[in-house]
Design brief:
heterotrimer, A alpha/beta, B alpha/beta, C mainly alpha, A: 12 strands, 31% helix, B: alpha/beta, eight-stranded mixed β-sheet, 12 strands, 23% strand
Chain lengths: 324, 346, 296
């Protein structure tokens, strides 16, 4: 395969400082993204999965420079995103787009669909008024919304239709790279399926690269070509989808797969015991491996030291002392 | 009285609920019948706007009236029609025999009181006991819902607990009445992480077995249904579309909507290799303008002219499996001749 | 395409949800708001059509008919101590009050919006400094602040309006800032930022239009407030100067006749009362309708 590396993330860290409650106390730091490294190839769908507070959304926003970064590198086609000047950053915005979770808050309620979709082209001064109009019609058809509804406000559409409009907005600038941040999790199941199909159709047609962020393992497993599992700001395991489904090595990945409700009640009486304990706060993660307090196979070493992310087979990396 | 009736804890007969808004009448639930047997878990499953929560709130009479109005029907709980009881009688039933847990436990707990005191209060309203005794019972109850170190936890305020712990506290509160009869769980795990969801579902299943409680589970998630329910009612736009034993429903979904719903799940086993989902086209109809026809008609791949006629009557697939569909009515729908749901897209 | 057919069917349903229609509909059901609305409309009509509503001139004095009691002659509400028709003066007073209301509210609105937007949008140091300044301004009793400003500028109607406008800026800035803070958390702001929208456009074209509702409520309340304060200033001799037909001034110049000719002081007072009440009722109604939390 001749794959071009489109995005390279190296040792990325994004920390947030919280205001402390106590006067004079040391401010608390949330390590939302804690030393992550991965690559995204052209045409790939990288699924990022994890529970709340694992930093997956922060990661998506940091890549688009919608957040600050604390340390590390984000190289887009070899160029550091955070070093771009205003003009280059504007160009970059053309190529990287984002689709948001909440179809109710991600569209400006005071703008008609037509002007929502025209906005990206106007900002980048692309095309005459007529060209913009034609493009809006074409893209609206493409995402399955009748262009006659251009004059409507977002609240006049249902959740699924709004999400289609959000996708249409992302498509207006002909991007090559789209970050979908929980793009289907607010939708009803039957609508979610429609939108997932749409995203795949677009991927096949335009050879988009996606980063697909979601808490729903089933969705990520369905849509992705490669999966990255996060826990408290760290990558615990990453592999090609097929490989990961076949052999999930990290106990957390295994727990995630197990916790997922099956789509058949058969044999539910004798399923594996569920993972106990709560997701720890990212403010004060446990010592050593962050997962060790909940891990059924924790060892003495797990309490002391965080395991490195190690390649166990080509493309399959896991951060766990069991596989050292 | 025959023996079958003795087992029924709650039944709803021909319930219709509407909301009179300034935009028109929203027909939220129409002609719904359901039964919950003692010790059973009945799941009401459907997408947003299908009327599952309205149904649950009708039992507890938490429907705001107006704009809501219960147009017709009875809710029989242990031989009494709940819709005919006075406010006072309902209030004493709520919490004592029928309790409810919600999607967001933070909003259902009082943020300014310690959780131990909140649960102890429930004990003290229903029983004539002292606070110390109530607190001791609370600790035992928290142990039962598997909250670690309950002696210390009773001194916590709701905001000091995680989402999963709060949901456990809510469940404990529901169990604090002397003889819990029915637990209505309205999307109890929707706001929780998957690993925590698995814990809570397991807990509800264990408790149900241990204390023979009945559960009415409201959810949009077929996975949650598969994990917890005994019987399932699939609802769509205020109507009951299919009702069955959980095994029968998942083995042989008959209604085109149920099939579509299961096919929409990316986790469905049939999608191991294919890369498109068999989605249902379109969106749910407007409950304001909806007529008497089958509400799924506009999205149904099998829609026929008759589907625009009034809503179909019950078709029995077997003893414990019924469906309301004109398409199925005209066909032999026994498990041997499985209906094939053809792919809706292009 | 199947979906398109589907969309067409939904057309009717969707049309009904227009935000404006919804607001009007809900306002219709709100009786106090309707009363307020009627009061305000009549107030504005009075202001616009003053010369046609009365045969008398507000400034022509006629000592021979001074202090005529109400309801006994063609001077329906009687005359004042200089023989001017009271009703006429009240009707003309509506003009001045309307000017005062709109003028001072526009001052506080424009500065309030600007300050609130910048402070809420940028946050950080800018916000902290601006907000502390506003806290200081708010720590002065409102009327005292106005008096100080008028005292510096010199007593006149224009300066009174200016003073009222300036001293109300903090309220507006706070309202705007609060809604900007809430609004900027929405994903659509992030979305538009990720498209490359400039800060200026985000502030004025995206966030501001979404904050209009609370600003509108505050402005409606503010007009009533401004009318009241200008009456107070005029009463103290710091606002309109005689012989202007200004309600506050009318009350002030007739206070010595409170016992002998009650109507001269009472009717202008009632005019102020009703106008301010009208604006407050409407503002309350608008708040109920426009507050997103009140909507389903």
């Amino acid at each position: 395969m001749n794959m071009e590396k489109i995005l390279e993330v190296k040792n990325l860290k994004t920390y947030f400082t919280l205001k402390s409650d106590k006067f004079g106390a040391e401010p608390e730091v949330v390590k939302a993204v804690n030393d992550l490294s991965f690559d995204v190839m052209k045409g790939e769908i990288l699924g990022i999965v994890g529970e709340s507070g694992c930093g997956k959304s922060t990661l998506g926003k940091t890549i688009l420079k919608l957040n600050h970064k604390t340390d590390g590198e984000i190289l887009y086609h070899g160029e550091e995103v955070f070093n771009l000047n205003d003009k280059d950053l504007k160009d970059l915005r053309k190529q990287m787009q984002m689709v948001f979770q909440d179809p109710f808050s991600s569209l400006n309620p005071r703008k008609k669909v037509g002007s929502l979709l025209a906005q990206p082209l106007q900002i980048h001064k692309m095309g005459s008024k007529q060209e913009i109009d034609e493009k809006i019609d074409r893209i609206m058809k493409e995402v399955g919304i009748n262009p006659v509804y251009k004059g409507r406000f977002p609240h006049q559409f249902s959740g699924g239709q709004r999400q289609r409009i959000g996708i249409a907005r992302a498509l207006m600038l002909n991007p090559e790279f789209i970050i979908c941040d929980e793009a289907v999790s607010a939708l009803d199941v039957s609508i979610q399926a429609q939108v997932l199909n749409l995203l795949l159709d677009l991927h096949d047609k335009y050879n988009f690269t996606y980063i697909f962020i979601a808490h729903d393992l089933a969705v990520v497993e369905f849509i992705s070509t490669k999966i990255l599992v996060m826990y408290l700001g760290k990558i615990v395991e990453t592999a090609d989808k097929k490989e990961l489904v076949k052999s999930h090595l990290h106990p957390y990945t295994k727990a995630l797969f197990d916790a997922f409700p099956a789509t058949n009640p058969k044999g539910r009486e004798n399923r594996d015991p569920v993972l106990m304990g709560d997701v720890p706060s990212p403010i004060n993660p446990p010592s050593g491996c962050y997962f060790h307090p909940r891990c059924p196979r924790a060892m003495e070493k797990c309490k002391m030291e965080y395991p490195p992310l190690r390649e166990v087979s080509p493309g399959h990396k896991v951060a766990c002392w069991l596989y050292e | 009285m025959d023996t079958a009736n003795n087992k029924v804890l709650l039944s709803m007969e021909d319930i219709s609920v509407s909301f009179y808004t300034h935009r028109g009448i929203v027909k939220a639930v129409r002609h719904l019948n359901l039964k919950i047997n003692k010790g059973d878990t009945l799941a009401l499953v459907g997408e947003s706007g299908c009327g599952k929560s309205v149904t649950a709130h009708t039992i507890n009479q938490l429907i705001p009236i107006p704009p809501g109005k219960i147009e017709s029907g009875k809710v029989i709980f242990e031989g009494r029609d709940l819709l005919k009881l006075s406010d006072k009688e309902i209030a004493s039933l709520r919490g004592e025999r029928i309790s409810m847990i919600f999607q967001e436990p933070m909003t259902s707990l009082n943020p300014v009181f310690k959780i131990g005191d909140q649960i102890a209060d429930v004990f003290m309203t229903h029983q004539d006991i002292k606070r110390e005794e109530a607190l001791a019972k609370t600790v035992r109850l928290l142990e039962m819902v598997k909250i670690p170190a309950p002696e210390r936890r009773i001194k916590d305020y709701p905001h000091q607990l995680s989402g999963g712990m709060r949901q456990r506290v809510m469940i404990a509160m529901a169990l604090a009445s002397p003889e819990p009869g029915l637990l209505i769980a309205d999307e109890p795990t929707t706001a929780l992480d998957v690993t925590i969801q698995a814990q809570i579902l397991r807990l509800i299943a264990d408790l149900k077995r241990d204390i023979n409680m009945s559960v009415l589970l409201i959810t949009h998630d077929m996975g949650v249904v598969a994990e917890t329910a005994d019987r399932v009612i699939v609802m769509y736009a205020g109507r009951k579309m299919e009702e069955a034993n959980v095994y029968s429903l998942f083995d042989n979904p008959v209604h085109p909507y149920t099939q579509g719903l299961l096919n929409s799940l990316p986790s469905n086993e049939k999608y191991t290799d294919s890369n498109r989902l068999e989605a249902i086209n379109g969106t749910i109809p407007d409950l304001l303008t909806i007529g008497d026809e089958c509400p799924f008609e506009n999205r149904c791949p099998h829609a026929m002219p008759i589907c625009r006629e009034p809503f179909p009557s019950e078709t029995k697939i077997d003893d414990d499996h019924s469906v309301w569909c004109h398409f199925v009515e005209g066909k032999d729908a026994s498990p041997s001749s499985k209906l094939v749901y053809d792919q809706g897209r292009e | 395409m199947d979906t398109l057919v589907q969309e067409n069917r939904e057309e009717d349903m969707v049309e009904k949800n227009s935000l404006f229609r919804e607001a009007v509909f809900q306002l219709k059901g709100n009786k106090p708001a309707i009363v307020g609305f009627i009061i305000i409309i009549s107030f504005i009509m009075m202001a616009f059509f003053s010369p046609w509503l009365t045969p008398f001139d507000p400034d022509i004095q006629d000592i021979s008919i001074r202090k005529t009691a109400p309801f006994i002659s063609s001077h329906i509400l009687g005359t004042d101590d200089l023989g001017r028709d009271l009703l006429t003066r009240i009707i003309y007073g509506a003009r001045i009050s309307l000017v005062i209301g709109t003028f001072s509210v526009s001052i506080s609105l424009s500065f309030g919006i600007l300050i609130g937007l910048i402070s809420g949008y940028y946050g950080g140091w800018v916000d902290r400094i601006v907000m502390r300044l506003i806290d200081i301004m708010l720590a002065f009793p409102y009327i005292l602040l106005t008096i100080v400003i008028v005292a510096i500028l010199g007593p006149s109607l224009t300066n009174a309006m200016l003073a009222i406008g300036i001293s109300q800026i903090p309220q507006y800035a706070r309202v705007v800032r609060a809604s900007v803070l809430a609004e900027k958390e929405n994903d659509y702001i992030t979305a538009e930022r990720s498209l490359g929208t400039s800060n200026f456009e985000l502030m004025f074209k995206s966030i501001l239009p979404n904050c209009i509702a609370p600003i509108f409520v505050q402005a409606t309340l503010g007009i009533g407030d401004a009318i009241l304060s200008s009456a107070a200033l005029s009463f103290l001799g710091l606002g309109a100067q005689p012989p202007t037909a200004e309600w506050g001034l009318m009350i002030a110049s007739s206070r010595e006749f409170v016992t002998s000719a009650w109507w001269i002081v009472t009717f202008p007072g009632i005019a102020v009362l009703f106008t301010v009440l009208g604006f407050n009722l409407l503002a309350d109604g608008l708040r109920d309708v426009l507050d997103p939390r009140m909507r389903d």
